[in-house]
Amino acid sequence: MKKPVKTPKLDLLQKSVIDNTDKLLTTNDGVPIYDNNNTLKAGERGASLQQDHIYFDKLMHFDRERIPERVVHARGSGAHGVFEMKEDISKYTCAKFLQKGAKTSVFTRFSTVAGFKGSTDLARDVRGFSVKFYTEDGNYDLVGNNIPVFFIQDAMNFPDLIHSVKPEPNNEFPQAASAHDTFWDFISLMPESAHMIMWVMSDRAIPRSLRMMEGFGVHTFKLVNESGKGTFVKFHWKPKLGVHSVAWNEAQKISGFNSDFHRQDLWDAIENGDFPQWDLGLQLISEEDEHKYSFDILDATKLIPEELVPVQIVGTMTLNKNPENFFAETEQVAFDPGRLVPGIDVTDDPLLQGRVFSYMDTQNYRLGGANFHELPINRSINQKHNNQKDGNSRIDILKGNVSYFPNSQADGCPYHAMLKGEVGFTSHKQKVDGEKVRQRSLSFADHFTQARLFFNSQTEPEKQHIIDALSFELSKVNDPKIRNREVAILHQIDKVLAQKVGENLNIEPSNTLDPLTIKFAQQIFPGYPFKTAKPEKETSQALSMVKSNKNDSIKTRKIAFLVADGVDKHSVTNLTKLLESEGAEAILISTKVGELKFSDGTKTNIQHTYLTDTSVLYDAVYTPSGKSVKILLDHPDYYEFVNEAYRHCKVLAFAKESESLLEKSLIKEDKGVVSESKNKSWEHTFIDLIKLHRVWDREILRKIPS
């Protein structure tokens, strides 16, 4: 006789469910946590301490939350290249690759932060910009972003930031997007994020190309010269092609037509010989000037305006070779801000101090153990010599019976550099004197001055884009309390900004921060908010893409030529030659693939059509003359193409016979609409306008949102 089946009194899964409501925060071992905002430091502005087991416990768990994909920066593109040092800065650093004339091989990886590996390139997000230098002194990693500041000040909050922006854990959406409750809940309770939010809501977060965005080291580092003197430094990458973006509406459509838009753009440019280049610039601050400014140079939520400390261009990076194998190179490359060489050192920036641990720990885990540096993409150009023999995925074979130091069995080898008077890495000497505390320096407590600086530095169209982005993001938030809290933060930055966003959300901005925001801020800064120091600068031209661009080139821009059978060949070839002489590319788009017949009877092969391509994939649009105009007059996809390009503030040109198409379109003629019959030098006018990138004034004049 079968025994009756007993019904469990408690479902096993349900037994594992934990409700955090009204519970004290603890470690994974159940130990109550007193402060979850600050790493343990030697003094409130001092170095982080290795004994911080609470931080290590939190970050080691975070570093292992994805298998095997990166937790952040999962979606990336990479390329090989060379860095050439052009200026003499030997008085600041003894780093050999930073000596005038030095040429160093590099591998650069660009990435988005929040999305998974399969997400779109065009998400509104921070872009990673990391460079591995294969120097003669070993590998040096400059691990940065395309935005010079960050959301948080202390590494203890990094897992919380990423958890908030990732898809919500109960339903796993939205993907690669910050427009949801958990992200803005976190941000609205962390006023230190205000400056970074201005950048992320600007067009900087939706670049036109990876080749057209700046890079920043984010943190303040130190250069160290031969005599041991240190100089604070901020690293900048300035793209030769200028800094350009796409429109938000355009970014969403590009994601649908080609989610690999940035990845393919970088690959194609290198394959075509249009090698991307960036100038390396340095902002140098003497140790004596460390406390000179109204902000703290060790605060990762702050930048140093270029008007205060000019960026000195010292060298150029050229990316000239695509990877042979995406997985072996781009996917397996491992970056770590703790990969330093003699002549460069870290500072006591608490976010940087935490990253030095977290990145190494992540790579050890993600790439299968402590030997990830033996993978070809991570291997130093000079052979490594130490007594480490074992570990998972070991590749190198070390001879002999010695795996320890000191030893006599191997004649004391490998030996210390100091034993024979050779150069080795030594940390920059600095006096450390402070109490062991979980605390943050009050010099970090000004959260809104630089957010205001950034907003005030933008042109009117750029400001409107920030307002539109904030309105879009916050309209996706379901909890009205979160929306109200964030609009109150915006009011601390700029009253007009808050008012306009508030109008779009049906919110009357509060003059003061939400009590809950103040409560959490006071857990970090008792007595917050404080009176802030007067800033040195109210605006900075370098912070505006429009103001800072030189607008002197259309190199690598893609110009759509809208054609059909019967198009006039001269109308196509004449402008094509002129565009190509300027480094741009003319691409013919027709009603069907295959043969295109010119009016003179000659033919060419067409690969792009109105069904497969769209205006968002191109930088400007031209409609040539010919019998093709008659076909296009009744072709709806043609009008969708030009109308959309017009909406996105792109430059459009019309040959004389094609101007009749304007009458059936939604286009209103302005300075960005060039007609052959009205301009004798229309081709050159067309090119000059493309150099401006967009005719952003059109948004205001025509009230056409993009």
UniProtKB/TrEMBL annotation:
Keywords for this protein: Heme, Hydrogen peroxide, Iron, Metal-binding, Oxidoreductase, Peroxidase
SUPFAM superfamilies, per the entry: Class I glutamine amidotransferase-like, Heme-dependent catalase-like
GO cellular component, one term: cytosol
GO MF terms held by the record: catalase activity; heme binding; metal ion binding
Cofactor(s), by name: heme
Main enzyme class: oxidoreductase
GO terms (BP aspect): hydrogen peroxide catabolic process; response to oxidative stress
UniProt organism field: Rhizosphaericola mali
Known catalytic reactions: 2 H2O2 = O2 + 2 H2O
Role of this protein: Decomposes hydrogen peroxide into water and oxygen; serves to protect cells from the toxic effects of hydrogen peroxide.
Gene3D superfamilies: 1.20.1370.20, 3.40.50.880, Catalase core domain
Record-linked SMART domains: Catalase
Boundaries of every Catalase core domain copy: 26-413
Protein name: Catalase
EC number: 1.11.1.6
Residue positions binding heme: R70, R109, F158, R355, Y359, R366
Active-site residues (renumbered): H73, N145
Coiled-coil ranges (or none): none
Protein family according to the UniProt entry: Belongs to the catalase family. HPII subfamily.
